[in-house]
Amino acid sequence: ADCAPRDLGPGTMADIATAKKTLDALKKAHNSGDAVKAASLLGTLKIAVSSFPALPPVFEQTKTAADELSIARDTFEMAVLHAVTSGNEAAAERDHAQLRPFYVDCRGLMPDSKLEPLITGLNLTRLLVQNRIAEFHVELETVPARVADSAHVAHAVALESDLMEGAYGKILQASMTPDALPAKEYAAFMASLALTVREEIAACIEKAYESVDAAAAARLMGCAPADVAAVASKRGWRGDGNGGFLFAEEKKAPSAEDIPAHELINQTLMYAKEMERIV
To answer: What does the alpha-carbon distance between residue 167 and residue 169 come to, in Å, rounded to a whole number?
Structure first.
């Protein structure tokens, strides 16, 4: 009798029904692009699910346990999607941390989520955007096989490969063709990744050339000539008076030629003579 599911009464059943309706409204708001309404509904749902006793780490056996787990998982999934589309990387990381127990500890207690491949792919992409490559590989090792075989994870793995190989053109091309992405939610992260890649390309241009015109820089960075001015200003490029840019001459590292060899030899000989005289 002690192991029987606890009946929480009609009040809790009403809470479950209300939470389901709110969750449905949240999904509609997100799909329609109504970020303000989605944020409001998310706040309401997070407060509601915080009172569910069947959630981890407690896992209290109630008659509505399956519904409680499912609603809470779906709520945090929508929270991640909302944070990603809003460009809030910190919130996306925080919401994914709250969602993780439902993917790891609750597997088998409810049906697998259809959104898990998307959420996993977005989380991996976020780690790449933040240049957290080691954590990317650790996270990748924990992905279950059915999710690892999805197009979402394959997209993140391909991005990581392009970054490591320096295939920046592929990344820029992907950021400029949102229709080719696995889902629309990737667009915000890809835009951030494109900015990072352009900064890397700008740094390479500085090393490779003494000067460059705006059109050539725009072509190399995969952006409009007008956008080059912002990069130039940020990195301190000087105008050459003809629409191009000059780069500050890099200070050369000291070489063997810079060492005053003769002076050092004379000093050493002088010390040797002094020591010999003392002895």
So the answer is: 6
> Cα dihedral sign for 24, 30, 34, 40?
positive
The mean pLDDT value of the chain amounts to 87
Q: Is the Cβ–Cβ distance between 272 and 265 less than 8 Å?
A: no
187 vs 198: CA distance, rounded Å: 16
pLDDT at position 252 is 55
What is the token pair recorded at 94? 């925080």
Structure tokens at 259: 């060492």
In the chain, % helix, strand, coil (3-state, to 5) comes to 70, 5, 25
Closest CA to 133 of 160, 110, 104: 160
Q: Give the Å distances, CA to CA, from 216 to 141, 202, 205.
A: 41, 11, 10
Question: How is the beta sheet containing 238-239 ordered, strand by strand?
Answer: 211-213, 244-246, 238-239
Listed residue (5, 77, 14) closest to 46, CA to CA = 77
| Nearest by Cα to 245 from 262, 261, 228, 259 | 228
Q: What is the pTM of this model?
A: 0.77
For the segment 155-172, what is each residue's pLDDT rounded down to a tens digit?
999 999 999 998 888 998
- State yes or no: pLDDT of 5 exceeds 80: no
Closest among 63, 59, 192 to 122, alpha carbons compared: 192
pLDDT at 10: 41
